[in-house]
Amino acid sequence: MGVNTNNLAATRLPLFPLNTQIKDGRLLIGGFSVEELAQEFGTPLYLYDQSTLDDALAQYRAALQAEYPAQSGLTYAGKAFLSLAMAQWAARRGLMIDCTGAGEITIAVAAGAMPEQLLVHGVSKSWEDLQAAVAHAGTLVVDHLGELERLIELNKNSSRLNFPDLWLRLRPGMAVETHSYTQTGQDDSKFGLSALEFLQALEKAQKAGLRVTGLHFHQGSHFHDPTPIAPALDLALDLIVETRQSLGWMPQTLCPGGGWGTPYHEDDLPHQTIGEYVRFVAQHLMQGCRERNLPLPRLHLEPGRSMVARAGVAVYRVEAVKRTATRRWLLLDGGMADNPRPALYRARYTALPVSQPERPATDAAWLAGPYCESGDVLIEALPLPEIYPGELLAVPVSGAYQLSMASNYNGARRPAVIWLKGGKVTLIRQRESLEDLYRRDLPLPS
Q1: Structure pTM?
Q2: I want to staple 416 with a disulfide (CB 3.0 to 4.6 A). Which of 40, 81, 88, 431 is the partner?
Q3: 289 flagged as catalytic
Q4: Domain 8-49+310-438 is classified in which CATH homologous superfamily?
Q5: How far apart are the first and last CA of the chain?
Q6: Catalytic residue chosen out of the listed positions 99, 255, 289, 372
């Protein structure tokens, strides 16, 4: 197959963290040699660059300040990647943290997040999840009427003076353009309340004395065109007009969710910016409120991937090179156990050699992991130079929805994670040990 043998590094570096450079034939991130980091911490290895995280947050805050004249806020979507260190980063910057259930709540609380910073989501919250939310969170998003009944019962028996504020999740009946597995707003989605159920839930919550302060909806994850948000916003605003007339209720906060996409591959560039996304949402919301004579609500966004994905890089070692009739296989020491996204929904990535990354490509390569699945292929048909066993490859845009879905398939040990900040490297998650694989297991009786 024909391959462009020009300098591939120039087209792929914009996908890496902001302070990535090539110096003396070495790939550097934050001033650190990726090769030396791999030697110290082993592979597979994940690294997060804080300056890239801080920059994405600054882009969101600047766009909201410039485009929306009323109050606004941001939640970090913990499902993208949540660890003690990441939760600390979010909490210290005044972000809310989206927690799905008791597990993520526990991590956020351990990181020092205050109740007003905890926003609890979940389509099927257990009693344990709801009890953790009532004990620790400031805001809870109600997904269905049965959940509301449980909350009413918990409120009756709760000793907590400040029961969480509630947002009701509307199912707008329209999704954004993305993979079907990550669409959430369509009519037959498992998420949220129909417009009729929304009205029923609001009336029931009011009668029970619960504070409903927000309207939330989410149409899907990793979309690149904000246009489908417009009709969903219109539906939400029309519903608010109805609730104001019939129940005397208007939301303090309107949250159209998150899910804004990010480029993963050089073919995805150029990509609409965070500022362009925020501008579209803000302008349409302002216009819709003017047309309906509604005051501007607090606009709240929930970025995950678009805030954290570019900050993360995965580093793998090539264990073997194999050629078949039509393919060059680079067999890595990691794959679908630490990154199931390509196997789940054909997510597309790119990569660069860590040593001499500016080498021209010779032909295409298929990058696959060591696991007993034909679907364990991280990258398909990627132009690369000649690669030899023992070389390192760096995969950018690895900060979201990889480690949070990682597994121990085939006895894989989940990788170490390091944090780069201001010329310092911090280990924020240890590599699992062999003993960790059976630490929770109990033996059969003799």
Answers
A1: 0.93
A2: 431
A3: no
A4: Lyase, Ornithine Decarboxylase; Chain A, domain 1 (2.40.37.10)
A5: 60
A6: 372
